[in-house]
Amino acid sequence: MAMEIATPIHAPVTSPASNLIISATTAGETQKKNRIQVSNTKKPLFFYVNLAKRYIQQHNEVELSALGMAITTVVTISEILKNNGLATEKKVLTSTVGMKDETKGKIIEIVLGKSDKFDSLMTPAPEEEAVANMGEKPVEAEAHEGKKE
Fold it and tell me: What is the pTM of this model?
């Protein structure tokens, strides 16, 4: 009696055309916690800038990636963060991928690290807090204004 061995779904498959190993992975395995996949049509630019700041704060670095026309958006986000002193550039990776219509799709990945000045720039100075709260009255003052003596 011959026994057949079934190939698991997630087993690496060798592509005969180029002898590359293609591995099937789940979305959770490929998606990093500090990776932002940027689109130039779904969200405004400063949504991504603020999200990148939050990721840098939480993970000490952020990986920005984009495909095609969104590449300029990733470069702009990176430059805004670097020019404001919030991030330093760690790595830039560019590549191309084959598309269905036999054209090449362009990809960019930029890894930014937390700058030395990041924490001091992200915490507002006491003067800025005072200016931001100028229109607000303290709770005690509001309580006394309501009372007539």
Answer: 0.63
